[in-house]
Amino acid sequence: MKRYNKVELIRTLEQELNYKRFIHTLAVAGTAASLAMCYGASVEKAELAGLLHDCAKCIDVRKMQKICERAGLPVSSFESGSGSLLHSKAGSVLAEEKYGCTDPDILNAIRYHTTGRPGMSLLEKIIFVADYIEPGRFTAKNLPEIRKMAFEDIDETLMKILYDTLVYLNSTGNTVDPMTQMTYDYYTQLYAEKNTYD
Predict the structure, then answer these.
(1) Looking at the predicted structure, is the pLDDT value of residue 137 above 50?
(2) How far apart are the first and last CA of the chain?
């Protein structure tokens, strides 16, 4: 992977993001780097993915949609108009076009950090988990347990976050993003099969 200028990138992100999002971004990058150390992944890639994961978060939703459409990324009717979902896809485009990141694993980690996806790489799991557990988060259920678990079993942590997210969305009457449900179903089946043969 081509080395990047971390200080320059952080300065740029500080201008592009609101203050709360910028602090969150730094926290995710630090948490992701720590998880990478724990699991033997590339610390540099994890930190860069963490820094860029929300790079599109503070732009207008209509612009997010145009960025996705221009890049040929399909936008479902469920995603249309939803900044909480579109920023991940738009962010993966901006990470490449604006910030010069061409590593497909990093781009996928950015693209799927909100919903997950079946067949996630270790880096994708790290960014997904880091976004959920970074120190500034405090509203999600079971956070102390999940933070401890994150440094013991990344796959079990992924499943716990997906499960808690689905329970929360269903309890509030919010529609569940199909990709989140698909990811949970995929890993539920995968681990059930794995346990069958252990």
Answers:
(1) yes
(2) 36
